Protein backbone atom coordinates (compact mmCIF):
# COMPACT_ATOMS: atom_id res chain seq x y z
CA UNK A 1 0.00 0.00 0.00
CA UNK A 2 1.25 3.45 -0.80
CA UNK A 3 2.11 6.10 1.78
CA UNK A 4 -1.02 8.16 1.05
CA UNK A 5 -3.22 5.15 1.73
CA UNK A 6 -1.88 5.07 5.29
CA UNK A 7 -2.98 8.66 5.82
CA UNK A 8 -6.42 10.02 6.59
CA UNK A 9 -7.79 12.00 3.60
CA UNK A 10 -9.32 14.54 5.99
CA UNK A 11 -6.50 15.42 8.40
CA UNK A 12 -3.48 13.80 6.74
CA UNK A 13 -2.41 11.94 9.87
CA UNK A 14 -1.86 8.18 10.07
CA UNK A 15 -5.13 6.26 9.98
CA UNK A 16 -3.71 3.22 11.82
CA UNK A 17 -5.25 0.77 9.39
CA UNK A 18 -4.84 -2.74 10.79
CA UNK A 19 -4.97 -4.29 7.32
CA UNK A 20 -2.18 -2.04 6.05
CA UNK A 21 -0.18 -3.02 9.14
CA UNK A 22 -0.54 -6.70 8.22
CA UNK A 23 -3.38 -7.62 10.55
CA UNK A 24 -6.52 -9.49 9.48
CA UNK A 25 -8.86 -6.86 10.88
CA UNK A 26 -8.97 -3.12 11.42
CA UNK A 27 -10.61 -0.84 13.98
CA UNK A 28 -12.90 0.48 11.23
CA UNK A 29 -14.55 -2.90 10.70
CA UNK A 30 -16.58 -2.45 13.89
CA UNK A 31 -17.45 1.23 13.37
CA UNK A 32 -20.46 2.81 11.71
CA UNK A 33 -19.55 5.54 9.23
CA UNK A 34 -22.16 8.24 8.59
CA UNK A 35 -23.02 8.67 4.93
CA UNK A 36 -21.92 12.31 5.01
CA UNK A 37 -18.33 11.50 5.93
CA UNK A 38 -18.15 8.90 3.15
CA UNK A 39 -19.39 11.51 0.65
CA UNK A 40 -16.77 13.95 1.95
CA UNK A 41 -13.98 11.66 0.75
CA UNK A 42 -15.66 10.28 -2.37
CA UNK A 43 -12.79 11.53 -4.54
CA UNK A 44 -10.35 9.43 -2.50
CA UNK A 45 -12.25 6.16 -1.90
CA UNK A 46 -9.18 4.03 -1.20
CA UNK A 47 -8.03 6.16 1.70
CA UNK A 48 -9.23 5.34 5.20
CA UNK A 49 -10.51 7.94 7.64
CA UNK A 50 -8.77 7.97 11.02
CA UNK A 51 -10.61 7.32 14.29
CA UNK A 52 -10.18 10.91 15.45
CA UNK A 53 -11.82 12.39 12.34
CA UNK A 54 -14.62 9.83 12.48
CA UNK A 55 -15.38 10.61 16.12
CA UNK A 56 -15.12 14.37 15.50
CA UNK A 57 -17.58 14.08 12.58
CA UNK A 58 -20.02 12.07 14.70
CA UNK A 59 -20.01 14.84 17.34
CA UNK A 60 -21.02 17.54 14.85
Describe the structure in your own words.
The chain is mainly alpha-helical. It has one domain. It has 2 helices and no strands. The chain has helices at residues 35-40, 51-59. It is globular and about 30 Å long. The model has no long low-confidence stretch (mean pLDDT 84).
How is the topology of this model organized?
Blueprint: H1 35-40, H2 51-59
Pfam families: Cys_rich_CWC
Protein name: Cysteine-rich CWC family protein
Helix content: 25-40%
Share in β-strands: under 5%
The average pLDDT score comes to 84
Broad structural category: mainly alpha
List low-confidence stretches. Answer: none
Protein name: Cysteine-rich CWC family protein
InterPro entries: Cys_rich_CWC (IPR032720)
Amino acid sequence: MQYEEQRCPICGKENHCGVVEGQKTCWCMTEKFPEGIIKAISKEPKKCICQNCLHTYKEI
